[in-house]
Amino acid sequence: MDVSRYELDAGKIFGVLPYALLKNHLGNEMIFCTSATFNTMSFNEFSSNQYLSIHYRHFFEGFVLNKIPLVNKLKWRLVANANLLYGNLKEQNIIVHDPAVHDDDFLANLNPFNPSIPYI
What we know:
This protein is mainly β. The chain has strands spanning 3-12, 23-24, 47-48, 50-59, 79-88.
């Protein structure tokens, strides 16, 4: 008996937020594949403020490998996995560093520990 499992995840973030507070989708840079991440995407490669993702797994439960002689004695099982993601990022949430506007050090303006400077 074949078994399928799927997860559907959708979301929308309203307003303008810093990049770190947007939806940061899980990438995977390791050699092992996992079903909870997007395995062809790097860490922190894609953030979005509206998205739709589908995680689909299909367990063949011996339907394919049990038909091959001598392999069926190993009792191996075949699993197919597909992760799909669609999303976008509004222009308002994209912060572009313009040296003409920030004439002093750009990283010095990102001090969250100074209470007189708001962290935006």
